[in-house]
């Protein structure tokens, strides 16, 4: 072990830091177990500061403001671990809430928007959503909540988001959006309420490739002309889009 440490310590520190900075957290922790030399390198503040900045840009921007002081030396790793644990707790709670609110694979828009707001309040980053909410084993409604938050809360572009969905193997999962609109008045009589429904894939929502602005219906929720909005899950990989209107 001493010979190994001696050989590795001959590596210039800036080169070793460059190598460590290219690794993801899991690989970085594995490398730190190799020797005392790499443990010291992989614990470097600059390495973990870069990881925090990459995963949570909002933390980095707030740290650079005059009113906020960045963490002290050797505190970036602790900050990363704490923030990661907080994110996991919040995202897991949101996934559980969605699951419990949709016992029959159907979610009312009020509960849906609450889940999105909870993610926004916790200031999850794009990587957080990919790691925790874009898992194919989760309910597709949970995937949809994460997708909605990325579009409206993080401003992630369609192509970038679609690529993330494809990497997570959930891009072709479908949901059915149903909404009921108040019937129109016609010569003093109010017509029957209108019922609309639309099957749409997560990939199409990510690129806003729909002609009825489904995301807008979800984002607005139940308002004065829309009596109710309901989201249902579906496990089919190929589902034709459809729209039904009953007057």
TrEMBL record:
One of its GO terms (cellular component) is SCF ubiquitin ligase complex. Pfam families: F-box-like. It comes from the Eukaryota. Residues 5-51 form the F-box domain. InterPro entries: F-box-like_dom_sf, F-box_dom, FBXO4. CDD domains: F-box_SF (cd09917). GO terms for biological process: protein polyubiquitination; SCF-dependent proteasomal ubiquitin-dependent protein catabolic process. This is F-box domain-containing protein. It comes from Senna tora.
């Amino acid at each position: 072990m001493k010979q190994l440490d001696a050989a590795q310590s001959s590596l210039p520190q800036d080169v070793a830091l460059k190598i460590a900075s290219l690794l993801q957290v899991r690989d970085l922790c594995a490398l730190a177990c190799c020797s005392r030399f790499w443990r010291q390198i992989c614990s470097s503040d600059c390495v973990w500061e870069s990881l925090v900045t990459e995963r949570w840009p909002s933390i980095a921007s707030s740290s650079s403001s005059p009113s906020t002081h960045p963490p002290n030396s050797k505190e970036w790793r602790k900050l990363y671990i704490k923030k990661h644990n907080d994110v996991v707790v919040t995202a897991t709670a949101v996934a559980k809430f969605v699951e419990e609110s949709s016992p029959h694979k159907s979610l009312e828009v009020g509960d849906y928007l609450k889940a999105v707001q909870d993610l926004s309040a916790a200031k999850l980053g794009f990587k957080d959503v990919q790691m925790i909410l874009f898992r194919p084993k989760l309910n597709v409604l949970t995937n949809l909540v994460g997708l909605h938050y990325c579009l409206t809360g993080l401003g992630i572009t369609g192509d970038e988001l679609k690529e993330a969905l494809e990497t997570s193997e959930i891009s072709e999962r479908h949901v059915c959006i149903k909404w009921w609109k108040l019937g129109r008045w016609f010569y003093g009589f109010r017509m029957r309420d209108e019922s609309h429904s639309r099957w749409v894939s997560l990939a199409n929502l990510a690129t806003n490739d729909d002609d009825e602005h489904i995301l807008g219906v979800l984002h607005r929720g139940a308002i004065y002309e829309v009596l109710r909005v309901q989201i249902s899950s579906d496990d089919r990989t190929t589902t034709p889009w459809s729209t039904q209107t009953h007057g």
